[in-house]
Amino acid sequence: MKGESIVIITNINIRKMTDNDYEVMAKWLSTKEVLEFYGDVNSPFTIDQVRNKYEPRIRGDVLVSPFIVELGSSPIGFMQYYKLEEQNDFGYSTNQVVYGIDQFIGVPNLFNKGYGTIMVSTFIDFISSNTDADVIILDPEVSNVRAIRCYEKCGFLRVKKFNNESNLLMEFKISKA
Fold first, then answer.
1. How far apart are CA 93 and CA 49, in angstroms?
2. pLDDT below 50 — which residues of the chain?
3. Which of 3, 61, 93, 155 holds its CA 20 to 30 A away from the CA of 172?
4. Which residues form the N-acetyltransferase domain (predicted)?
């Protein structure tokens, strides 16, 4: 091990998505590796489709908050969070405040380098500090082993399979100090 060093990457920035991000989102949402688990591999997104989907979120017309993840000043990924309706399909009681999150790294050569863990951990801290969330959930495809491993490193627990056993409900319970 002499001469080897461990580098910890800390220059990850998560910022609100803006109208200037449509092009990079369209690029990411046309990438096979992203669409494999975040869309449909046979249906890449155009800039107009990205604008139609994300502009209402940026404007606050839809209660989903979108963010862009940057490494240094370069965009590398996407994250969003939203409050689940009181009545939901996952079995949470109406007195629990549940938020869902979705995310992806848009640059495939950055997969498996620890960025996802930093992104998700940072987002958990942000949501815990800035919302009334009791629980944060996500629902990766069961076949998305890389993402599930990342979420478990961040403290998410497996709850149950659903959607004909193709998705996994995972939760992070926020401890109230």
1. 35
2. 1
3. 61
4. 12-175
Return the CATH fold of 12-173. Aminopeptidase (3.40.630)
Tell me the backbone φ, ψ of residue 133, rounded to 5 degrees: -60, 140
8 Å CB contact between 66 and 17 = yes
Tokens describing residue 131: 């919302």
Distance CA 128, CA 144 (A): 25
Task: Name the residue ranges covered by the structural domains of the chain.
Answer: 12-173
Q: How many Å apart are CA 26 and CA 10, to the nearest integer?
A: 27
The structure's pTM equals 0.89
CA distance 5 to 19: 40
Tokens 């494999």 appear where? 36
Position of tokens 């890389």? 146
Bridge partners (DSSP) listed for residue 60: none
Q: What is the pLDDT of residue 44?
A: 82
Question: Tokens in use for 66?
Answer: 């979108």
Give the pLDDT of residue 91: 83
